[in-house]
Amino acid sequence: MKKIVDVLRSQGNHWVGDGFPVRSLFSYHDESAAISPFLLFDYAGPHHFDPTDTPRGVGQHPHRGFETVTIVYDGEVAHRDSAGNGGVIGPGDVQWMTAARGIIHEEFHSPNYTKTGGPFRMVQLWVNLPAKDKMSPAGYQAITNADIPVVPFPGGKARIIAGTFRGARGPARTFTPVNLWDLRLEKKADLTLELPEGHNSMVAVLAGRVVINGEQTVGEAEIVRLAREGDAITIRAEQDAILLVLTGEPINEPVVGYGPFVMNTTAEIRQAADDFNNGRFGQVAPAQPLA
Ligand code: MN
Asked: How far is the CA of 165 from the centre of ligand 1 (A)?
């Protein structure tokens, strides 16, 4: 069994722009080695937005040195970036954006969701890149709900976004070994979950309440962090639950970050700021009509 190391909780709420009411459940600023290759876990919502005319969100900003993974549960998010990519993702969809050597993007509620309003729930994960890939070309994977294999089991199902689960392979391409599974459990579900030995592994509870290894109750907006040693945990659902399981092979390299840049040295951070300030991250293309 993988032993429980600790339970991570939000240190407080903040808004990202005016569109994303976020609880940060972990950040590499607190501890980087034990969560590597993950850097940041922002849980936005659940929140109800009223209809309005002007899309809420966050305007153009840069990233360098890692990937942002946006998973939508409720609502719709529109994205445009300096690599020429864009689109709208809705419930069940995932956007896997590789900032790598540099990208500028904006993240807003879609025009359609802006008009209708309604429930909003989203996760944004930052996933680190190894030093050798930090200056790779930027990339964008639009992963739709239909692309994501579903593995049913007694009392629930798993959607495999990245990595493998019971023989099913997720569609996301990753730079280092990563598993990312969206688990839905019904109340009283009892599950043994195999997790890779040697990976940093975490189970985030987005809704509901579960008991891990028969000993630790974990509720909404809490993450249980597990030991690298061992290869399985048990999960019992005390309520209907939405979980996000993340595991990854640790990247054993220094992590130096500042704002939207995460590199290996302070010199590389200075270079990132200099490149951004001198227009070397490119430009976001003019607005396209979005569905
Ligand atoms: Mn961003």
From this structure: 29
The answer to whether 195 and 226 have CB atoms below 8 angstroms apart is yes
* Dihedral sign computed on CA atoms, order 221, 209, 168, 150: negative
CA of 38 to the centre of ligand 1 (A): 15
C-alpha triplet 223, 225, 231: angle, nearest 5°: 130
pLDDT over threshold 50, residue 283: yes
* Ligand 1: centre distance to CA 147 (Å): 23
**Integer Rg of the chain from CA:** 18
pLDDT in tens, 195-222: 999 999 999 999 999 999 999 999 999 9
Does the pTM of the predicted model rise above 0.90? yes
Ligand 1 center to 82 CA (angstroms): 12
Per the CB < 8 A criterion, the answer to whether 266 and 87 are in contact is no
Q: What is the largest CA-CA distance in the chain?
A: 56
Ranges of H-type helices in the chain: 111-116, 266-277
Across 144-167, average pLDDT? 98
C-alpha closest to that of 69 among 130, 129, 146: 129
Strand, helix or coil for residue 88 = strand
Beta strands in 118-214 (DSSP E): 118-128, 139-143, 150-153, 156-162, 164-165, 168-169, 178-185, 190-194, 200-207, 210-212
In whole angstroms, give the CA distance from residue 36 to residue 109: 30
Question: What tokens appear for 36 in the block?
Answer: 């590597």
pLDDT at 291: 47
pLDDT one-digit tens code per residue, 38-62: 999 999 999 999 999 999 999 999 9
Note the pLDDT of residue 11. Answer: 79
